[in-house]
User: What shape does this take?
Amino acid sequence: MHLEQSKIPVIGEKPMNIDPYRSLKVETIRKDFPIFEAHDNPPLIYLDSAASSLTPLCVIDAMDKYYLNYRSNIHRGIYQISEEATAQYEEARKKVARFINSRRSSQIIFTRNTTESINLVAYSWGDANIREGDEILVTVMEHHSNLVPWQLLAQRTGAKLRFIEVTDDGVLQLEDLDGLLTERTKLVAITHVSNVLGTINPVQSITTAAHQVNAKVIIDAAQSVPHFPIDVQQIDCDFLAFSGHKMCGPTGVGILYGKRDLLEQMPPFLGGGSMIRSVERERSTYAELPAKFEAGTPGIAEAIGLGAAVDYLTDIGLDAIQAHEQEILEYAYQILSEIDGITLYGPKPRQRAGALTFNLSGIHPHDLAGVLDGEGVAVRAGHHCAQPLMQRYGVIATARASFYLYNKLEEVDRLYDGLLKAQKLFTRRRR
Ligand code: PLP
Assistant: This one.
């Protein structure tokens, strides 16, 4: 099976639904984010949502309400406020399930973040299913969260990692997939959207190809779920992991979606309270899903806050958010590519989401980020937890601007001005 990049539909393999009449009312949206009011001189230009998004007031309110009105533990108390906390926590799970079209809410496991979700699969499913000589297929563009757990699994079991390479243009070299997927491949671990290049990978087609050799598929959706509609049943992936803090939710809550039969067969990841059915001196039996994978007291306020974030994004509409970000990305790509000495990494805007990564000749990205910070523009500089990708492009670090629903085109102009200022400053210093 060959996948040609040119045949890959853009954005999550659904046609993009850009409707100009649904364009976002950004000024109204910005009023939902109190942090903008706290930094009005100079105004905060936040271009680092790929690291962590900002939090709208409704999410803060939902968490406050828990602490102020019904703060208590869940699933245990036979009294009113605990029942309220349990109901709100479980309601958040249902909201997340609907958000990604999971068949059942019991297939949604709350974790701390994407990293923990992926580690859960690596230790639980991985240790039970991966043997010496098996192969785990990953890509060169993975975040360390979707690479190091597989390296550790390979070291524990004697399995081998294989890599889908990345082209100079920042897309996966999918013509190699035929040769890489064999009966030895037991798992394909792939990011939906690269946190560095913004590349949107055709995860549905890759999943179909992986299933043809009976490999399971885990998708790192940390950079896709916040930005465009995801349907896990349509993709047919076996696992999908993402983080609350990149989608207007609080830090400290992540999600693992899994197919029910797999989750049911998997042994627990962490042992302790809440995940058991009964405990004897030498052995225990375990609770049904999802409790089996939620040992100990979870981030209750965090899950409730995430539920509010899901409501918030759903009300605005993921299609509208996606269209808005595309507009900003296209504008940013166009004006930044006019700067002398700039290298933009990754594909053209229509094949990407969220992030724009670049280097300016002769200026270290940390210095660039420092100058931009002086202008009130927050961007990320570094290896972005993707060192193999940096090595692929022969760089140690890059600068990255990433966009979300609250960003404005004028902010891209400020980024552009800041880059020119940095260029002037550093050229003068070198003279
Ligand atoms: N995967 C991708 C693609 C990411 O961008 C990130 C965070 O930047 C992660 C995984 C890890 O997310 P977390 O730190 O929330 O576990």
Observations:
- The radius of gyration is 22 Å.
- The pocket of pyridoxal-5'-phosphate is lined by residues 51, 113-115, 143, 145-146, 191, 195, 220, 222-223, 243 (CB under 6 Å).
- The longest helix spans residues 409-430.
- Confidence is low (pLDDT under 50) at residues 1-21.
